[in-house]
Amino acid sequence: MNVLVTGGAGYIGSHAVKRLREGGHNVVVLDNLFRGHREAVPDGVAFEELDIRQTDAVTDALKRHKIECVMHFAALAYVGESVPKPLMYYDNNTGGTVSLLTAMDNAGVKRLVFSSTCATYGEPDRMPIVEDMPQSPINPYGWSKLFVERILKDYAAANSDFAYAALRYFNVAGCASDGSIGEDHEPETHLIPVLLNTVLGKRKSVTIFGEDYDTPDGTCIRDYIHVEDLVDAHAVVMEKLQPGDQRFYNLGIGRGCSVREVIDAAKKVTGNDFPVETGDRRPGDPPQLYANADKIQSELNWKAKQTDIEKVVQTAWRWFKGHPDGYGKS
Ligand code: UFG
Fold first, then answer.
1. How confident is the model at residue 67 (pLDDT cuts 50, 70, 90)?
2. Statement to judge: residues 277 and 232 lie in one domain
3. Ligand 1: which of 73, 79, 116, 198 to mutate, judged by most atoms within 8 Å of the beta carbon?
4. What is the number of the ligand 1 atom nearest to the C-alpha of 221?
5. Are 148 and 35 in a shared domain?
6. Is the CB of 285 under 6 A from ligand 1?
7. pLDDT tens-digit profile of 13-37?
8. What is the CATH classification number for the domain harbouring 266?
9. Active site residue 290
10. Is 118 in the pocket of ligand 1 (CB under 6 A)?
11. Domain count along the chain
């Protein structure tokens, strides 16, 4: 299939490009390079340096490359940043997707796989999270993605031959197992990269954001899904989409891991006993978030394979060790 990957120069998008090419698809990357890396796009992959809000230019790119499906990763994705800058998030994530859908409509592209998030659930009172639980985000980032889910429902209701899936990610982690591509964010706030940057000496210590949660070891619990599993699910879902489909799936492993457990895994994998401090809770952090991952398994016979946190951290360590300064500088 001819697939346009928006945000294909970013962390998750670049892994999707790799997986799609390995699956025999013809891939075109569209990215504005605001936070993506040109170096993450392999030679031989067509690259459109565009913003999804450039509706006419995106329409033209969809037509020129005879795109049959859009995999849409392009988005701003810092929960913390979204609070003081909500308009930036609604403009890029929500408005940007309306523009992309308009371009798809203009060009007659009828399939979309959308990158949604478990942040659309907010702070559910029960765990694990099932897809039909209420969605009530607690920050603009979560809302910016939930609004898109709503818009997709309305667009699909008006266009019976349109098909889409909204995939709600839990904590995406790890890097390509072959070490070829990885994670390079500026600023970096995610737990595993923060730990590995500390091992590399780029930070002096790690701070645990709260050890007084009502969890077994007092630290927050998250569901870490390997990026290769995550993008594999996208390819599987894309290949199954039929006209009229509206699919919603959680993408997690279905089990949580505490901050302490991730730190222990990082110490073991790297052989480095880096300093760890305890700090205050980070505002907006729910104590526990983990998926019920049964729906995608029962409907599409798909489940995550890389479920051992040490092995997940190992793949990230391979990338960080080999590329201490990220893309283009090593
Ligand atoms: N953490 C620390 N110290 C750090 C960094 C993180 O203790 O230096 C803790 C956090 O408090 C949290 C856990 O590690 O408990 C994971 O934090 P991340 O920042 O790696 O990830 P989040 O769970 O905050 O965010 C993820 C995704 C978001 C998504 C969100 C849903 O990255 O895109 O889950 O709540 F929106």
1. very high
2. no
3. 79
4. 15
5. yes
6. yes
7. 999 999 999 999 999 999 999 999 9
8. 3.90.25.10
9. no
10. yes
11. 2
Q: Do residues 218 and 229 both lie within one domain?
A: no
Residue pLDDT, tens place only, 175-223: 999 999 999 998 899 999 999 999 999 999 999 999 999 999 999 999 9
Same domain, 200 and 129: no
194 Cβ closer than 6 Å to some ligand 1 atom: yes
26-30/46-48 β-pairing = parallel
Shared-domain flag, residues 14 and 79 = yes
% residues pLDDT > 70 (the chain): 99
**316 and 258 co-located in one domain:** yes
Tokens 């394979």 belong to which residue? 305
Query: What spacing in Å lies between the alpha carbon of 191 and ligand 1's midpoint?
Result: 6
This model's pTM is above 0.85: yes
**212: exposed, middle or buried (C-beta count within 10 Å: 0-12, 13-18, 19+)?**
exposed
* CB 138 less than 6 A from any atom of ligand 1: no
Q: Is residue 327 part of a domain?
A: no
Mean pLDDT of 60-81: 97
Question: From residue 110, how far is each of 41, 103, 132 by CA, in Å?
Answer: 25, 11, 25
Atom of ligand 1 nearest to the CA of 78: 33
